[in-house]
Every structure is written in C-alpha cells, then in structure tokens.
Amino acid sequence: xxxxxxVLAAVLAAVIAGLAWFATTQSKAxxxxxxxxxxxxxxxxxxxxxRVQACFGxxxxxxxxxxxxxxxxxxxxxPPYLPAQGAASSAGxxxxxxxxxxxxxxxxxxxxKETGKRQRDAVFEIPTANQPPAPGxxxxxxxxxxxxxxx
Length: 151
Prior knowledge:
Blueprint: H1 2-25, E1 41-45, E2 51-56, E3 63-64, E4 73-75, E5 107-113, E6 119-125, E7 128-130, E8 143-145, E9 148-150
Parallel strand pairs: 1-9
Antiparallel strand pairs: 1-4, 2-3, 2-5, 5-6, 7-8
C-alpha cells in the first residue's frame, strides 16, 4: 500500500512537471485579448473634397466625416459610422456593417463629392498590419489599421 502511494505521488509529480514544461516552452496558444485596433480609420483622399461621408460595411448608411485640424480624415469606429450591435440595416444583410464590433471591421464605404464634379461612392478593404512580436514571444503583435487610399 505504501509503495503504491509513493508510485502514485511520483507519477503525479512527473505529470505536473511535464505540463508545466509544455505550457512554458511548447505552447503556441496566443492571447486574443487586447490585440484589436479600436482607433479611428484614416482615409487618404487623393483630391481636395468638398464633402466626405463614410460608414463601416457594404450597404451601410454613410454619415458626414469632418477633416481634423491636422488635415487627416478620421472615421471613428462608433455610431453612426459603425451601427450598434444588433442594429438592423436597411438591406438586412450580414455584410451591411450592422453588428460589427470595433476592431473587427474589414470594409469601409466612402462617398466623396468634389466641387463641380460627380460624387464617387465606393467600398474599400481596410488594410491592416501586425506589429512585431514582443521580445521572446512567438505570438504576433497587435494588429493595426493602415490608412485607406481613396483615389
């Protein structure tokens, strides 16, 4: 009986040591929390527009965007540009942008009106880039949105 207890304790200790080793040296799981870019998405507009409207998604309802004092066009990931989760779209489609979360947007609809010219209305993919991993980490760094080029 005493021998069984000693063997059981030794096996249990070996299993715990093996799991600890695996978790610290072999685990490839990366934390998902804190890696989303919830900041505004920048529009790089090639011309000087009279009016800019935008929203996140394909069939969403564009809203006016104001140019920042520093000259950048920034679209915040919040209503009215990003409909609240569970909000119904006019088309009712999943690609409309309704129900998207900040940091999970992939497309932006931009409407640009130039003085004396026709209005342009297009949907663009939002480019992203991963930051370098932290020193000693095998996990990619946080993703960030790159500016969207609007011709």
